Amino acid sequence: MSDAIDRAVAEAEALLEQAAIARAEAENADEKRKQVKALMFIKFRDAGSSAADAAERAMTTPEYLAAADEWMSANITWRRFDGKARGKELKFEAWRTKAATERAAMNLR
Length: 109
Prior knowledge:
Helix content: over 70%
Number of helices: 3
Distance between the termini: 26 Å
Shape: rod-shaped
Radius of gyration: 24 Å
Structural class: mainly alpha
Strand content: under 5%
């Protein structure tokens, strides 16, 4: 492959790896958020709150709000990297289609 193609593939690989790591971090943050909510729910249920009240109160605790903020930030990062990676894939597919069309046109001459 040419140097330009090698560079483009290396950039795409790096971007896809960043997107995968960001996705894992977002999924981990989401799991943490759910665990914090469950712990807070149990805390409020044990204190005598109804299930509905405990669920509502659990989502207003500082611990849950911090976990939710962490998840939102990680999710945005993942979506950003994923969008960049998809854009890189689209550019590659457009280049590949153009190159194939040019080769086909040369073969018809």
